[in-house]
Design brief:
MetI-like_sf, single chain, 565 residues, MetI-like fold, mainly alpha, 2 strands, AminoethylPonate_ABC_perm-1, transmembrane helix, transmembrane, transport, two-stranded antiparallel sheet
């Protein structure tokens, strides 16, 4: 009996030790992949910024040249002014819209919310093309501009406002939805009117959301490439200048410096947001009563009017681009045609670019969902390799502070380096998939980590006590419970890969052109209707994938894990 007990103990110890080693191997493998996909490319930007064109050490000379360049400093000032203007336009609109959704009983709030989020399905070039059709040289509403050109500051500002509105709304609406009804009851008991309650309860409660939304909008505008490329005209911004320096002039050191300048506002925004998060108090405590608005005819009517007005403007910008893709010759011949969808007759890669985007989106969704799930799982549910898990968490949060354009620059400098053995990946679909996953990793990781955090840790403890390997618990318990979140992540990654432009503009090749990039090529060649058609395809495809009922279909098989059946 004693010998049998010893053998069982040794076998159990070997099994536990083997599981720990396998978990540590998984942690360090994922950390190594993120180091390769994020850490080294960003490090190479810094290295390129302090070298000369022939590879020698330049110190701070490149920074000095950029700071003494009137054109680049003017572009930096233009980017700053544009970001501040768009923030001033978007934040009040997003706040009013979010207030209408969460603080009223207006009819159709769910529909209005979907309309407000529809710009997420379109590339940033879509509003720019629509503005050209409305207010351009042959625009349908050109007379309303008083002779002013849509190409320039205000054209870019309007396009960026459309592009960034849903991002601000998501943050602000979430902040407004988290309100304690007891505060409003106390305010009414003390004689505070509606205005005073708004100023002393609503605004302070939404302060963190407003600041976070402002930081997100500011960063998105500074680093966006698509809208300024189409509507900028002579109004240069830093994002376009970075593209010109790297692709146009092949001046990699100066492009690296401009990339670091684009990284600066994103990093500052990240640290400001983290500092505010530490000071932010929970809006809903355990004793809180969730605020639920009652029916008030005047307030609900005003909210409906506000929601309808903003939604109409968003639908107009989205709808004009879609409609123009079917119109024969805007605005002189409004008969319908499918001629603009014959992409093989125009520049940009033809239908191959669209199918490449489908491949990119599918591969990013499938591979990204697997990697993100494993990364979040080892961070949240495993105890092996503490140092590796800390490194993995750091890289999981890093993309939040790195704009896509900067990440794309890093991929140029790192993967295109002649001495890099991975140089063969440059310009290929594999590298674009890696870049897309790295670009959107943070949001996906936080989504899965939140789902894992809701799963009781006793599952792993019981499994360990029963000598059940962690991969069996992962397959039978953790994965089924987290499947809805995983499907959301897959859809998010697919749509993001279909619509993104800035991160991939530097690393595509003619053989692997993408739909979003082909829009710029078509627009530059004067084929604006074809560009609108390609943008429409992206919107329809993204919308179709977003509407798939995969979660409902698959979720029925796993409801018993959630106690729903």
């Amino acid at each position: 009996m004693l010998s049998l007990a010893l053998r069982l103990t040794r076998r159990a110890g070997w099994r536990a030790d083997g599981e720990s080693r396998l978990a540590a191997l998984l942690v360090w493998s994922l950390a190594a992949l993120l180091t390769l996909a994020l850490g080294l490319p960003l490090l190479f930007i810094l290295g390129k910024a302090v070298t000369t064109m022939d590879g020698g050490f330049a110190g701070l000379a490149n920074f000095s040249q950029v700071l003494n360049s009137p054109g680049l400093m003017r572009a930096a000032w233009h980017s700053l002014l544009l970001a501040l203007t768009v923030s001033a336009l978007v934040l009040p609109l997003a706040f009013v819209f979010g207030w209408g959704l969460s603080r009223s009983r207006a009819w159709g709030r769910g529909l209005f919310r979907q309309i407000a989020l529809s710009p997420l399905l379109a590339p940033s070039l879509m509003p720019a093309i629509s503005l050209v059709y409305l207010f351009g040289n042959q625009g349908l509403l050109k007379g309303l501009t008083g002779g002013a050109s849509i190409y320039g500051f205000w054209g870019v500002a309007l396009g960026e406002a459309f592009y960034t509105f849903p991002y601000a709304l998501l943050i602000i609406a979430t902040a407004l939805a988290s309100a304690d009804a007891r505060l409003y009851e106390a305010g009414r008991a003390l004689g505070a009117g509606a205005l005073r309650q708004f100023l002393t309860i609503t605004l302070p409660g939404a302060r963190y959301g407003l600041v976070s939304a402002a930081l997100v909008v500011f960063t998105l505008v500074v680093t966006d490439f698509g809208v300024p490329k189409v509507l900028g005209g002579d109004y240069n911004v830093l994002a376009v200048e970075a593209f010109k320096q790297v692709v146009g002039q092949q001046n990699f050191p100066r492009g690296a410096v401009v990339g670091l300048m684009l990284l600066l506002p994103a990093v500052l925004s990240f640290f400001i947001e983290r500092a505010m998060a530490r000071r932010q108090q929970a809006a809903l405590t355990a004793r809180a009563v969730l605020f639920a608005p009652g029916r008030k005819l005047r307030r609900d009517a005003a909210a409906f009017a506000l929601l309808a007005a903003v939604s109409a403007a968003l639908l107009a910008l989205l709808g004009v681009g879609v409609a123009a893709s079917f119109i024969k010759y805007w605005p002189y011949d409004l008969s319908l045609t499918l001629a603009h969808y014959r992409f093989d007759n125009v520049d940009g890669g033809g239908w191959g670019a669209y199918f490449n985007s489908l491949k990119l989106g599918g591969a990013t969704a499938l591979l990204g969902a697997v990697l993100v799930f494993l990364g979040a799982y080892v961070c949240e549910k495993q105890q092996a390799a503490p140092l590796g898990r800390s490194l993995l968490r750091f890289f999981a949060m890093l993309p939040m502070a790195v704009p896509g354009l900067v990440l794309g620059l890093g991929y140029v400098f790192f993967f295109n380096h002649p001495a890099n053995p991975l140089n063969a990946l440059y310009g290929g679909m594999t590298l674009m998939v890696i870049c897309s996953i790295a670009h959107f990793y943070t949001t996906a990781h936080l989504t899965v980590a939140t789902a894992l955090g809701q799963l009781d840790g006793e599952f792993e403890a019981v499994a360990a006590s029963l000598k059940v390997p962690f991969w069996t618990t992962l397959r039978r318990v953790t994965l089924p419970v987290c499947l809805p979140a995983l499907l959301d992540v897959a859809r998010f990654l697919f749509v993001s890969a279909m619509t993104t432009l800035s991160a991939l503009i530097f690393i595509i090749s003619p053989e692997n052109s993408l739909a979003a990039v082909s829009i710029i090529t078509m627009d530059d060649a004067g084929d604006t209707a074809a560009a609108a058609a390609m943008a429409t395809l992206i919107v329809v495809t993204s919308g179709g994938v977003s509407l798939l009922a995969l979660e409902k279909c698959l979720g029925k098989r796993h409801r018993h894990w959630r106690g729903q059946g």
